[in-house]
TrEMBL record, chain A:
Encoding gene, per UniProt annotation: nuoN
Transmembrane regions listed in the UniProt entry: 12-34, 46-65, 77-99, 111-129, 135-155, 167-189, 209-232, 244-264, 276-299, 306-327, 333-353, 373-401, 413-434, 464-490
Protein's name according to its UniProt entry: NADH-quinone oxidoreductase subunit N
Assembly mode: NDH-1 is composed of 14 different subunits. Subunits NuoA, H, J, K, L, M, N constitute the membrane sector of the complex.
An example Gene Ontology molecular-function term: NADH dehydrogenase (quinone) (non-electrogenic) activity
Organism phylogeny: Bacteria, Pseudomonadati, Campylobacterota, Epsilonproteobacteria, Campylobacterales
TrEMBL record, chain B:
Topology term for the membrane: Multi-pass membrane protein
InterPro entries (UniProt xref): NADH_Q_OxRdtase_chainM/4, NADH_UbQ_OxRdtase, ND/Mrp_TM
Localization per record: Endomembrane system; Membrane
Organism name: Halarcobacter anaerophilus
The protein's name in its UniProt record: NADH-quinone oxidoreductase subunit M
Phylogenetic classification of the source organism: Bacteria, Pseudomonadati, Campylobacterota, Epsilonproteobacteria, Campylobacterales
Domain NADH:quinone oxidoreductase/Mrp antiporter transmembrane: 125-414
Top-level taxon of the source organism: Bacteria
Length: 495, 510
């Protein structure tokens, strides 16, 4: 009889500190659930504030790290891009939950579970970016996704359930892809840790190449689903339409940054070794993701759907940075995403404030609803116009600097054609961003449409809008400090 | 004087912001005052401008994104000086002549923002800052055409925006590449044109970069065949929009060629001389013929603009001091003249709400003062000697004569064709019997219209008779530009070609 070797756990090597930030979010979620158990009649603003509070603590604990800390039997890896992406995600989550401070708190915010689930989502994504083990990435991804499906379903519109089911089904498929892809890598290399996979593959000179390539394709499918890369993007518009504007904004920013970090870690293995097939696959994916949704977006008559397709296209842009793979490109990926997040937060919050239940219009945010807005509500119109101009990449507004720096990094790495495709796509995108601007500024208002613009606004949300607007307009002054921070963290993790 | 350029850029912007607080009934006076102050400031700058120096003056630099070499860098030389003065002058004149009543406050605020971007384009010396103002100028113009324009205004506004936006993005890729080339050569990032002027680029690189910049500039100019947005934009824009579009926005494109394409890519400029000249020639002749076929007075002037811009391009690609200097003078004179003509059409449109030539006839009988001013402007547009239009056109053509006498002769047709369509316009609308009874009661120009038009006429005649105050500083900077081109050229043939076209039959301006 063989005896089971005793397992000795060294507490120091466990390095408990690596999971403290996520733990804050999880504890927060549990606290909210417990508070709800004790007293069911508390005002919902308490939960909002608790969420913000725990996320702030989460953010605070993050700042303490200086990179490349390992823990939990090497499962956790808190390196520079992990810290950076966690900080962006948590910060974005704080601002997005802030939008629920709106006047008419809709159905979903009557449940405290909403906030608990929200915190679980954040914690899940934090796990996802702080590991180079495919298993833990998988666990984080699933934690976040499960909670997200429920969040989407908690919406009082009839298409919310449809959206949630759609997201869930596609998500399940992606899960299967991920699991299968990981298995293939385990079969070839005998490990699920990306660092070791890289080492073994390089040492064995990419033996069993067809299997590896198959694994890459499956993992690209899984990551591509989260990042809404073409052709795994088909769920996006319906899910965005079915969920609330703020949740749609959240979906367009936070899960993707987690996906980008995984993509960075994963594709680095192949791009660094100059694998031509992976590069071609990725190149094609990037170009298609930029172009196809852009063209579909031209046909949309609903602003939210249009923004959904535009966010796919933007994901394609940012994915371009992964393809380019230089340090400058990685910097530009984060810069781009921060700028995109601020602008998108503003745009989706503006949609959220104008939510209404008028039955005459074809959809919640049809273009006609906004015609002549400049005469009815100049503030709403100018803010929305500003965010759309920023999304279109008109200087000096926020996203222009992201685009410029990204195209610049493509040019510097010799990807001139890619840079030109990016430029052409920006021009196509300008057309559909102009559409709402044309409706708001150049058309006459619709008579008797009974829409109350800004009906959902409160001082808190208006402050948020003001914050986004100021950052968007004066982003030129934030680029340099942001780049310094980003490049510091990117450099210490060696990307 | 150190911050004069920043003041010039940001004064209209601040004035625009404060304009939100001005009451509706006094906003027009506010606008006139603001634009007048801006104009006086530019004149003040001119008096402090040392025209014996060819280099940039009043430069100012503030780092913005240091790690990537982007600075707020502004400065002015003989080439841009008068474009800035023309910009502020035409903005002031167009605001004085403004008759629009709908939503006046928004219009004025938009114009003031537009003025900021226009001045910004002409004084920016950092490529990214240049691009920033260049793109930003589209937004107010989109609003002006789209909100105050005619029937097809939205289509026209979007077409204008998208066309120019697309071209500029290709240019942006070129700019970013140049920044990278600078980094590779020197180890530092820089987007300053002054730094870039030190670069010597290999020939093939120059070729594709020239094309990239061409995409941005040619659409803006607009050169044939990228000119199709312009008749729509002009046709639909309100008077003030057309005035500013023709007077200033189009000049951004030709200015871009002079500021970027020539000094940065001298060999490519020589290489592309003939293709550029042919495109310009097609524009000159083809659009002049199209102008002749128009029935709408405004469209005649719109197409004549494309035609005249062709002459400017021709002058620039003569690549000698007379040609480039002449084309810069022509930019200024075309700004004044075409702006004036659009204002004149606006005057008649205000009274009759039509710009069709067939609705008029015999206007000279009822509106003699108007007819006189129109006549002078028209002569200047044709390029009659002793008017402002003659000097630039003559110098541009004489410059190109050294390159190709044949093409110049063909281009010279522009004067004949221009005379044809302009005089036909004048004949149809102003001479003959009064065919339309409604026209009998038309009021002649008065008050504000005279205040706006008389300064234009004064400029047209004074500078037509005595252009030296402008030509001297322009030539100073242009000679330096040509020297830079000669020094930087990598091909021996380019050097020879530049030397040749600059030595024979030198026109002295001293």
């Amino acid at each position: 009889m063989t005896s089971i070797p005793s397992v000795v756990i060294d507490f120091a090597s466990l390095n408990f500190a690596t999971i403290v930030p996520m733990l804050m979010a999880i504890i927060g979620a549990l606290v909210i659930l417990c508070v709800d158990l004790v007293n069911r009649n508390l005002d919902k603003s308490l939960y909002i504030m608790l969420t913000i509070l725990f996320l702030l603590v989460d953010l605070g604990t993050l700042i303490g790290y200086s990179g490349d800390v390992r823990g939990f039997f090497d499962l956790m890896l808190v390196d520079g891009i992990s810290i950076l992406s966690q900080a962006i995600m948590v910060f974005a989550s704080i601002l997005f939950i802030f939008t629920t401070m709106s006047k008419l708190r809709f159905q979903e915010f009557r449940y405290p579970e909403y906030f608990a689930l929200y915190l679980f989502v954040v914690a899940g994504f934090q796990f996802m970016v702080s590991s180079d083990s495919l298993i833990l990435i998988f666990v984080g991804l699933e934690t976040a996704s499960m909670a997200l499906y429920t969040l989407i379903a908690m919406h009082n519109r009839k298409n919310a359930i449809e959206a949630a089911i759609k997201y869930f089904t596609m998500g399940a498929l992606a899960t299967a892809f991920f699991a299968f892809g990981s298995t293939l890598f385990y079969a070839v290399t005998g490990t699920v840790e990306l660092g070791q996979i890289s080492e073994i593959l390089t040492n064995s000179n990419f033996e069993n190449y067809p299997v590896i390539l198959l694994g890459v394709v499956f993992l690209l499918g899984a990551i591509g689903f989260k990042l809404s890369l073409v052709p795994y993007h088909t769920w996006v518009a319906d899910v965005y339409e079915g969920s609330t504007a703020t949740l749609a904004g959240f979906l367009s920013v936070v899960p993707k940054i987690a996906g980008f970090v995984v993509a960075l870690r994963f594709f680095e293995i192949f791009l660094a070794s100059g694998d031509i097939y992976v590069e071609i696959i990725l190149y094609a994916t990037v170009v298609l993701t930029m172009t196809i949704p852009n063209i579909i977006a031209l046909l949309q008559t609903d602003i939210k759907r249009m923004l959904a397709y535009s966010s796919i296209s933007n994901a394609g842009f940012a994915m371009g940075a992964v393809l380019i793979g230089t340090t400058q490109a990685t910097n530009s990926l984060f810069l781009y995403w921060i700028m995109f997040f601020i602008t998108n937060l503003g745009a989706f919050t503006m949609l959220w404030l104008n939510r209404d239940k008028s039955k005459e219009l074809s959809s919640d945010h049809s273009l006609e609803k906004y015609s002549g807005l400049i005469k009815v509500s100049p503030f709403t119109a100018s803010m929305m116009g500003l965010f759309f101009l920023s999304l279109a990449g008109v200087p000096p507004f926020a996203l222009f600097w992201g685009k410029m720096y990204l195209i610049g990094s493509a040019v510097n790495a010799g990807y001139i054609i890619l840079a030109l495709i990016m430029a052409i796509n920006s021009a196509i995108a300008a057309y559909y961003y102009l559409k709402p601007i044309v409706y708001m500024f150049l058309k006459e208002p619709v008579e008797n449409n009974n829409i109350e613009y800004m009906a959902n606004s409160t001082t808190a949300v208006k402050t948020l809008i003001g914050f986004c607007a100021i950052v968007t307009i004066f982003s030129i002054f934030f680029v340099e400090p942001l780049l310094n921070i980003i490049s510091y963290y990117v450099q210490i993790s060696g990307y | 004087m150190e911050h004069i350029l920043s003041i010039l850029i940001f004064f209209p912007a601040f004035a625009a912001l404060i304009g939100f607080l001005v009451k509706n009934d006094s906003i027009r006076m506010y606008a006139i005052l603001v634009t007048a102050i801006e104009f006086v400031l530019t004149v003040f700058m001119w008096t402090n401008f040392d025209s014996s120096i060819a280099d940039m003056q009043f430069t100012e630099i503030i780092p913005i994104i240091e790690s990537y070499g982007i600075n707020y860098l502004v400065g002015i030389d003989g080439i841009s000086l008068f474009l800035v003065i023309m910009t502020t002058f035409m903005t002031m004149i167009s605001v004085i002549g403004l008759t629009e009543k709908r939503n006046l406050k928004h219009l004025i605020i938009t114009i003031l923002f537009l003025e900021m971007t226009m001045v910004g384009v002409f004084v920016a010396l950092d490529a990214i800052i240049f691009y920033l103002f260049w793109e930003l100028s589209l937004v107010p113009m989109l609003y002006i055409i789209g909100a105050w324009g005619g029937q097809l205004r939205i289509y026209a506004a979007i077409k204008f925006f998208l066309y120019t936006f697309f071209g500029s993005l290709v240019m942006l890729v070129g700019m970013l590449y140049l920044g990278y080339v600078y980094y590779q050569t020197t180890g530092n990032w820089s987007f300053s044109i002054l730094d870039w002027n030190m670069l010597v680029l290999p020939f093939d690189m120059q070729l594709w970069l020239f094309v990239a910049f061409f995409a941005g500039f040619a659409i803006k100019v607009p050169m044939f065949p990228f000119h199709t947005w312009l008749p729509y934009a002009h046709g639909q824009a309100p008077t003030i929009g057309s005035v500013i579009l023709a007077a200033v926005l189009l000049k951004m494109g030709t200015y871009g060629f002079v500021r970027f394409s020539l000094p940065l890519f001298p060999d490519a400029s020589v290489y592309f001389t003939i293709p550029m000249a042919i495109l310009a020639l097609i524009a000159i002749i083809y659009t002049a013929m199209v102008a002749y076929a128009q029935e709408d007075m405004k469209q005649v002037i719109a197409y004549s603009s494309v035609s005249h811009m062709g002459v400017i391009i021709l002058g620039i690609f003569a690549l000698n001091v007379e040609g480039i200097g002449g084309s810069i003078f022509l930019m200024i004179s075309h700004g004044v003249v075409s702006g004036g003509l659009f204002m004149l059409v606006g005057v008649i449109y205000d009274r009759r709400h039509t710009k069709m030539m067939k609705d008029f006839g015999g206007l000279a009988l009822v509106m003699p003062k108007y007819a006189t001013i129109f006549g002078i402007m028209l002569m200047a547009s044709i390029g009659l000697p002793l008017t402002i239009g003659f000097v630039g056109e003559f110098l541009s053509l004489i410059g190109f004569f050294k390159v190709s006498p044949v093409l110049t002769v063909i281009a010279g047709l522009t004067i004949i064709l221009g005379a044809v369509y302009m005089l036909v316009l004048y004949k149809k609308s102003f001479f003959g019997p009064i065919t339309n009874e409604e026209n009998r009661k038309l009021q002649d120009i008065k008050g504000r219209e005279i205040a706006a038009l008389v300064p234009l006429i004064a400029v047209v005649i004074i500078l037509g008779v005595y252009p030296k105050p402008i030509l001297k500083p322009v030539d100073k900077s242009v000679s330096q530009l040509v020297e830079v081109m000669q020094i930087k050229a990598v091909n021996q043939s380019t050097k020879v070609r530049l030397l040749e076209s600059n030595s024979i039959g030198e026109v002295k301006n001293d």
